[in-house]
């Protein structure tokens, strides 16, 4: 493969990679925010909020991500709601991973010792400050390893939005393979790029996990956490 051919392959794949990263970052930020909100609703004393959050989680976890993407992109226009393909992809990934993160955050919050709540209450902290200053920092340490696993899953799951015509790495690979008839070469390059992105992301999470580690503090909830969506 000469330099000109390599450039012809890398240019569309590089552009697709940028869109994949955009999908990942947008979906990750929104999914964390949604997951935390749904988690708080799930833990709420209000039956309406708690049951509503549980229903949302059950529906999302009980249906495939691919179906959810089809429903948003192809189904919603029948109700008069037309959504841009990229926005539909971000929305589908956000709703899907938000449900899983809600349960992850809930397990982290519930793992905080009740004595921490009592100590915070004794210091005169209100409910919001107790959550922000005492509970959430400890919950984040507990779930951080599993959160890293979900991030790795998310960056790979962005490839599914290719089926709704979103131009990202997988879609760029499909188009390039169709134009060059070099499927083996193209998909090997696509796989190498995904592997590189996941390796960098895993490295960043490992470094961050070490910084969050407190001597003598065991983050048991993060170990052996099943990220399977089966």
From TrEMBL:
Keywords from the named record: Amino-acid transport, Cell membrane, Membrane, Transmembrane, Transmembrane helix, Transport
Family membership: Belongs to the binding-protein-dependent transport system permease family. HisMQ subfamily.
Topology term for the membrane: Multi-pass membrane protein
Protein's UniProt name: Putative glutamine transport system permease protein GlnP
Recorded GO MF terms: transmembrane transporter activity
InterPro entries xref list: AA_ABC_transptr_permease_3TM, ArtM/GltK/GlnP/TcyL/YhdX-like, MetI-like, MetI-like_sf
Lineage of source species: Bacteria, Pseudomonadati, Pseudomonadota, Betaproteobacteria, Burkholderiales
Function: Part of the binding-protein-dependent transport system for glutamine; probably responsible for the translocation of the substrate across the membrane.
UniProt organism field: Bordetella bronchiseptica 253
SUPFAM superfamilies noted in UniProt: MetI-like
Major subcellular site: membrane
Span of domain ABC transmembrane type-1: 17-205
Annotated transmembrane regions: 20-43, 55-74, 80-102, 142-164, 184-205
GO-annotated cellular components: ATP-binding cassette (ABC) transporter complex
Pfam families per UniProt: BPD_transp_1
Compartments where found: Cell inner membrane; Cell membrane
Gene Ontology biological process terms, A to Z: amino acid transport
């Amino acid at each position: 493969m000469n330099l000109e051919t390599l450039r012809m392959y890398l240019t569309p794949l590089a552009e697709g990679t940028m869109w994949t990263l955009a999908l990942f970052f947008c979906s990750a930020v929104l999914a964390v925010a949604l997951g935390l909100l749904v988690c708080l609703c799930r833990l709420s004393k209000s039956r309406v909020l708690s049951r509503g959050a549980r229903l949302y989680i059950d529906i999302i976890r009980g249906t495939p991500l691919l179906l959810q993407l089809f429903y948003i992109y192809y189904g919603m226009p029948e109700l008069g709601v037309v959504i841009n393909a990229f926005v539909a992809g971000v929305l589908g990934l956000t709703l899907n991973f938000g449900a899983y993160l809600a349960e992850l955050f809930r397990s982290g919050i519930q793992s905080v010792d009740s004595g921490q709540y009592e100590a915070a209450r004794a210091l005169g902290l209100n409910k919001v400050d107790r959550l922000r200053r005492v509970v959430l920092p400890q919950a984040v340490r507990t779930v951080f390893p599993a959160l890293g696993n979900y991030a790795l899953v998310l960056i790979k799951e962005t490839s599914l939005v290719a089926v709704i015509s979103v131009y990202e790495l997988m879609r760029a690979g499909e188009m390039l393979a169709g134009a060059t008839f070099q499927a083996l070469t193209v998909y090997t390059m696509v796989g190498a790029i995904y592997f590189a992105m996941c390796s960098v992301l895993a490295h960043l999470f490992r470094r961050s996990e070490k910084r969050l580690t407190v001597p003598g503090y065991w983050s048991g909830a993060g170990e052996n956490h099943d990220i399977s969506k089966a």
